[in-house]
Design a protein that fits this description.
By secondary structure, the protein is α/β, with parallel strands linked by helices. About 40% of the residues lie in helices and about 15% in strands. Helix 6 links the parallel strand 4 and strand 5. Helix 2 runs parallel beside helix 9 and helix 3 packs parallel to helix 4. Bound molecules: pyridoxal-5'-phosphate (PLP).
Length: about 375
């Protein structure tokens, strides 16, 4: 058994990120300024986006996207039952109705047929989530949206780097929301990015900074104009240059970070290929997954213990885990408000009972992965039914 606890997904930072932050701290500009502008430019280049807007979280990006698409009370937004609460919470924040669709059993991605069944005259937006960094079938979803005159906002929190048929997630005409939260594939501690067409981003930029027609950097720099207007009350969602300086280094290191992640994924895939105990996710052909999560379903029929005890046994063997996710309809707010029962989304319910994510991050070594595999095999034999 390993001696030290293996954390589920710690960040992987180097002296280069530390020096980048120090350099910003020595300048006169800490808020959104030149580093943030540079990060937006580099990020847009990386994902072949038309434009990019750096924000203080992906949740902020999702919230602003809904506002930029004009979603409000009386509207309906369709999203997946299998996502982080932030995806649904922002729908509630703008006063719209959350409409959930069930998932595909092998990828945990939103089931396009289930989306179609839920489209009404009030549907304004479809919000697919690229679970674990495997993009949804965007051809099908975009076509469906076009047919019904509705917009698409992509939750790409897991997607660095993810591709569909060679095209990066973030390069489409849909507003697309990325996360740089501490556990994500690349991090700025807290942070997010919104990509999409420039005119929508211009509007989003205003909403993200108090609704002001001109940002501080443009007002306080030499030759800047102090006057601004507030056409509508906005939020305070901008990214700081401190965060952006970390993001620039992480973005540059992304190929290395991704390669290290792939090495761990390959090790797990090999070990679980013929496993009767552990079932990993499927990656469909034509997609490059970012492999943000290594989510597994455990075969409860082969065990005397349930998922929760399986997690406890892993922790006892010094292996950290997560569960991604407790489905939205099982959260008390949503269950109460919409009257949902666990069985209303049967695929998500069944997946959830056996779901956990094992450690996966760029900092891990192959030995760490082997420790996880050994712990799982040990539990499997000890609690065999
Ligand atoms: C992490 C995450 C978010 C929220 O990202 P923040 O940057 O923490 O706001 C939204 N959706 C999904 C699917 C996520 O995993």
């Amino acid at each position: 058994m390993r001696k030290e606890f293996l954390s589920f997904s710690p960040p992987f930072l180097t002296d280069e990120e530390i020096q980048a932050v120090t350099a910003v701290l020595k300048t006169d500009w800490l808020s959104s300024g030149p580093k943030t502008a540079e990060f937006e430019k580099e990020f847009a280049k990386t994902v072949q986006a038309k434009g990019a807007l750096a924000l203080n979280s992906c949740t902020a990006a999702l919230h602003i996207s809904l506002l930029a698409e004009g979603v409000g009370p009386g509207d309906e937004v369709i999203t997946t039952a299998m996502t982080f609460c932030a995806t649904a919470n922002v729908i509630e924040h703008v006063g719209a109705k959350t409409v959930l669709a069930d998932i595909e059993p092998e990828t945990f991605l939103i089931d396009v047929k289930e989306i179609e069944k839920r489209i009404t005259k009030k549907t304004k937006v479809i919000m697919p989530v690229h679970y674990a960094g495997h993009a949804c079938d965007m051809d099908a979803i975009n076509k469906l949206a076009q047919k019904h005159g509705i917009k698409v906002i992509e939750d790409a929190a897991h997607c660095m780097p993810a591709k569909i048929g060679g095209k990066p997630v973030g390069s489409s005409d849909n507003l697309t929301c990325f996360s740089f939260y501490a556990t994500k594939n690349m991090t700025t501690g807290e942070g997010g990015m919104l990509t999409g067409p420039q005119e929508k981003l211009d509007q989003a930029r205003m909403i993200a900074l108090h609704g002001m027609s001109r940002g501080a950097w443009k007002r306080f720099e030499k030759g800047g104009n102090w006057r601004y207007d507030v056409p509508a009350p906005g939020f305070k969602y901008n990214m700081s240059d401190i965060q952006a300086s970390i993001g620039l280094v992480q973005l540059k290191r992304l190929p290395e970070l991704y390669e290290r992640r792939l090495a761990i994924v390959n090790r797990y895939d090999q070990a679980f290929k013929k496993s009767n105990l552990v079932k990993p996710l499927t990656v469909k052909s034509g997609y490059q997954s970012s492999h943000h999560l290594y989510a597994i379903r455990i075969n409860l029929e082969a065990l005397k213990i349930d998922r929760d005890q399986f997690i406890a046994e892993l922790a006892e063997r010094n292996i950290g885990t997560g569960v991604h996710y407790i489905p939205i309809h099982m959260m008390s707010y949503y269950a109460k408000k919409y009257g949902w029962k666990p069985s209303d989304f049967p695929v998500a319910e069944k997946v959830f009972e056996r779901l956990l994510s094992i450690p996966l991050c760029s900092r891990m070594t192959v030995q760490d992965a082997d420790d996880v595999i050994a712990a799982i095999e040990d539990i499997g034999s000890k609690f065999k039914r």
